[in-house]
């Protein structure tokens, strides 16, 4: 067991920069040391209660949490700004000129204008403490999203969501899915092509082979409504043909787009549809869209109330409106991007992994023959991953006590298959799909946890369509973050899962862009 003196020395060594340790004379240093002593007493009590396997890691986690709280308290005082929505904003050829503001090297953004705007959140700071922000909606992750219809219309007006009175659409063309966001004003003389767009979108719930409208995610905003649609990116040539046939765009119309496909398909849009893509960086759009939805949809963000239990689906809303920076945003699309977000305009892509939603779908298609995501996740709901995963108990015959590994911990994902003469015997496609969900979800969560430790962040938001209506994955991620951080970090989830980039694209005329 580590002694009190050792722990005290370790804590100070970890937290105090070398220079300040040498001088250790200023009031600030004294204050810091004093606080550390208080934390130390608290930790000693915690150590006594919990007797963690790894006391030093436990201490470090606790300190990271404390530092993040202190940081939050400080940043709460700063006013939050959102990009000014200017109804006369530039579009088309002016997009390029506007791009020069971006600091391409760091991935950070130049500061926005600090001019106050209707989208600037007012003085309603909410507390950094979870209990002050949370709203018990008595929802489970399976329950309906009807409360999305509650709105904060006072923050933005319909004229600020349109350009010269006309609504726009925002596209996020990803490696697997193309997401569309559009705003429909309640009263507006729509131009003919815009009228056709909205008639086309609203008259159906499905489009072509894979397109669908996520009507449960629509929400009222100002004097209108946001709608969300997605289809498989591989259908893009067919989708462009359909848009042409329906006459949804004028010649030379500029469509706002982000994601890799905004680059890849630019020529096809131009040649087949006569449409110019006004492009924005995908991660910047992701963050802009997230900011907007957090500000305008009260129950956008939620967490699992009992992450210790893998099977407990109960969730609670969390009001992210208050300043809770810094946080991590982990976007699980085809691949995974991990961002550290320092404020509404400043972020860094600190890591990523190629093992993401695309890996899940690809392996599912190969191993289960499930052709689409919904079938694969539905099958997973009835699957039993322990029929394919090798557990600690499969190796030890019980727990591995020395290091606290319980028998039901997965020792090797898919490892049980190796133990069988006939790998396919007694397993269902649901078992495979469930194991893949766990394997990928838990792996991403573990990477996010490690990065969060490295960058001293305790709140991790998960987005992207891998989580789409997928409580199994969310549950696995929430459990994993809780497990690895010994309960000191929290996983948050978002109702509009994979649509943030398209919302950010919608607002491109009000922001800077990287090209036209
Ligand atoms: N209807 C669907 N069809 C295909 N995949 C789906 C579907 N719904 C959810 N998914 C999951 O969502 C993932 C794609 O997520 P998302 O749309 O956020 O990423 P993307 O933008 O296509 O990818 P990237 O950002 O890496 O370019 C898929 O890999 C799959 O795991
Ligand atoms: C390439 C992107 C950013 C495209 O959205 C995404 O698929 C991703 O973050 N992939 C992981 C790449 C990496 O290994 O960092």
TrEMBL record:
Q: What Enzyme Commission number(s) appear in the record?
A: 2.7.1.33
Q: GO terms for biological process?
A: coenzyme A biosynthetic process
**Stretches for region Disordered:** 93-159
Q: Identify the keywords attached in UniProt to this record, alphabetized.
A: ATP-binding, Coenzyme A biosynthesis, Cytoplasm, Kinase, Nucleotide-binding, Transferase
GO terms under cellular component: cytosol; nucleus
UniProt keyword annotation of Cell division present:
no
Which pathway is recorded for this entry? Cofactor biosynthesis; coenzyme A biosynthesis; CoA from (R)-pantothenate: step 1/5
Which catalysed reactions does the entry list for this protein? (R)-pantothenate + ATP = (R)-4'-phosphopantothenate + ADP + H(+)
Comp. bias (Low complexity): 112-130
Class of this enzyme: transferase
InterPro entries xref list: ATPase_NBD, Type_II_PanK
Molecular function via GO:
ATP binding; pantothenate kinase activity
- Superkingdom to which the source organism belongs: Eukaryota
> Subcellular localization, per the record?
Cytoplasm
What family, per the record? Belongs to the type II pantothenate kinase family.
Q: Which PANTHER family match?
A: FUMBLE, PANTOTHENATE KINASE
UniProt protein name: pantothenate kinase
Which classification does the entry list for the species? Answer: Eukaryota, Metazoa, Ecdysozoa, Arthropoda, Crustacea
């Amino acid at each position: 067991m580590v002694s009190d003196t050792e722990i005290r020395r370790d804590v100070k060594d970890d937290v105090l920069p070398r220079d300040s340790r040498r001088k250790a004379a200023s009031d600030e240093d004294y204050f810091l040391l004093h606080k550390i002593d208080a934390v130390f007493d608290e930790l000693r009590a915690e150590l006594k209660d919990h007797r963690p396997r790894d006391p030093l890691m436990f201490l470090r986690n606790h300190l990271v949490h404390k530092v993040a709280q202190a940081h939050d308290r400080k940043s709460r005082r700063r006013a939050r700004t959102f990009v000014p929505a200017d109804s006369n904003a530039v579009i088309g050829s002016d997009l390029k000129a506007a791009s020069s503001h971006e600091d391409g090297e760091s991935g950070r953004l130049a500061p926005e204008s600090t001019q106050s705007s209707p989208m600037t959140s007012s003085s309603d700071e909410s507390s950094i403490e979870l209990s002050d922000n949370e709203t018990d909606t008595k929802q489970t992750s399976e329950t309906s999203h009807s409360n999305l219809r509650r709105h904060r219309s006072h923050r933005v007006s319909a004229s600020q969501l349109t350009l010269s009175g006309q609504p726009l659409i925002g596209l996020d063309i990803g490696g697997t899915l193309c997401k569309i966001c559009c705003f429909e004003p309640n009263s507006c003389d729509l131009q003919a092509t815009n009228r056709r767009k909205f008639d086309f979108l609203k008259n159906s719930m499905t489009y072509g082979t894979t397109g669908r409208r996520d009507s449960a995610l629509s929400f009222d905003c100002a004097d209108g409504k946001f709608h969300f649609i997605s289809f498989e990116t591989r259908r893009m040539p067919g989708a462009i043909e359909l848009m042409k046939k329906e006459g949804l765009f004028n010649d030379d119309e500029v469509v706002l787009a982000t994601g890799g496909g905004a680059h890849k398909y630019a020529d096809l849009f131009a040649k087949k549809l006569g449409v110019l893509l006004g492009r924005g960086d995908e991660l910047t759009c992701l963050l802009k869209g997230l900011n907007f939805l957090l500000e305008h949809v009260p129950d956008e963000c939620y967490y699992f109330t009992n992450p210790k239990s893998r099977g407990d689906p109960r969730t609670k809303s969390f009001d992210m409106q208050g300043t809770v920076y810094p946080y991590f945003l982990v976007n699980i699309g085809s691949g995974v991007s991990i961002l550290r977000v320092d404020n509404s305009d400043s972020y860094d892509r600190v890591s990523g992994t190629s093992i993401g939603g695309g890996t899940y779908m690809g392996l599912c298609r190969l191993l289960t023959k499930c052709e689409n995501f919904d079938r694969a996740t539905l099958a997973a709901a009835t699957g039993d991953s322990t029929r394919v995963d090798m557990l600690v108990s499969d190796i030890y015959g019980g727990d591995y006590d020395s290091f606290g590994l319980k028998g039901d911990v997965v020792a090797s994902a898919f490892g049980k298959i190796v133990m069988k003469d006939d790998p396919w015997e007694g397993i269902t496609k649901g078992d495979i799909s469930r194991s893949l969900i766990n394997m990928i979800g838990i792996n991403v969560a573990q990477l996010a946890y490690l990065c969060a430790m490295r960058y001293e962040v305790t709140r991790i938001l998960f987005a992207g369509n891998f989580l789409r209506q997928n409580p199994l994955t969310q549950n696995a991620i929430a459990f994993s973050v809780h497990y690895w951080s010994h309960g000191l970090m929290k996983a948050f989830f978002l109702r509009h899962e994979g649509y943030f980039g398209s919302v950010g694209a919608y607002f491109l005329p009000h922001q800077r862009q990287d090209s036209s």
